[in-house]
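Good day; I would like, with your permission, to put a structural problem before you. What I wish to show you is a protein chain and, alongside it, a tokenised description of its three-dimensional fold. I would ask you to consider whether the tokens describe a fold that such a sequence might reasonably adopt. You will find the record immediately after this paragraph:
***
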Amino acid sequence: MNSLKNAFSRENLLKNLNFFAELNLGLILTAVGIVYFKNPNHFAFGGTSGLSILLADLFPKINVGGFMWIINLALVVLGFIFLGVKGMGWTILDRNWRSGHLELDIVAEERGTVVFVEVKTREKNGMQRPFEALTPVKKERLVRAAQAWIAGHEAWNRSCRFDLACVEYSAGTYQTELIRNVIEYADYGTRHAVGGGNSSWQPW
């Protein structure tokens, strides 16, 4: 109930309304560009719109918009088949959240679990790997920050997880690895670590 009330709070409603307006403005501008520029001039630069223009020329009974619906629907279905719901089920709740001296890089939700994601970026082949930067002291600060976020959103009944996004860069290229469940039960004095990277829990 608390999460539902929070979803319909004035702040979240305004944020969602702003996102909805910007999204639709972008879609309208894209549609205008396709209808009045790309399609009449037979420009197919790539992507779903370019492929749709080509298909509409080959099969004129279906217009560009119809082919875009078909192609995007096919992509969504293929995404569920090859990536699974788990790979597509993340919702970003907060970015760069701060409360006093506490901070969280990313707060997300995956299938009902709140995920606190710490991002560490290091140079490839440097003195320290990204995961080595997550020290016990940093873990304690993360837990305190998570407590503050949960308290602020009245979500003490929600299960949570701490993930680490490791980013390594070299010569303008970046490699990213997501390590799930980087803070285990055992970090807080219990007898055994649990999970294999998939356990949801509350460290408080």
